[in-house]
Amino acid sequence: MTITTAFEGQVTLYSTRAGFAGPKVQSLAFQAQFDGAAWTVAPGDFRPVVVPDIVALGQRLTLTVTLAQPAAGQADPLTGQASLQAQFRFELTGLPLPLASLLPLVLDSGAAPAARWPGGPVVQGQRIQAPSGQMTLAGVGWFQGGPLDGDQAAVLLAGGFTPRPW
Known about the structure:
- The protein has 166 residues and is mainly beta.
- It contains no helices and ten strands.
- Strands 1, 2, 3, 4, 5, 6, 7, 8, 9 and 10 form a ten-stranded antiparallel β-sheet that branches.
- A hairpin with an 8-residue loop joins strand 1 and strand 2 (24-35).
């Protein structure tokens, strides 16, 4: 049986790119489909995250983060462990032509060890808490293409599901 649930919380973004080091904290909302232990998020169900006043390429720009393709993961209602494989599109606007970079990530609620890069934060997920449904997914990856190509990023998604998927 498929259950549709809404996630609301915040996203915290960090990067090794000067002018975008972070933390950049914004509200986050998306709908997820749970079918047993499997869950998915469709790009149209992910509300874009808009971060104003990013300094890049010598200018103040706006960064818009969207889900580039469907995201899929697993969640275990007995242990609270969850993971999500996603690819995010980071688009800088405010220039004559928008510039975009992709960030593929595996976000995890804590089974993976805490991740850190030199000078950056430690990012660690938190398992889904019963009965509240609160959790934190964390991941570290490298941007691909566009103006952020080769820079490293850390992403934390913290919040909860309503209704709880289990």
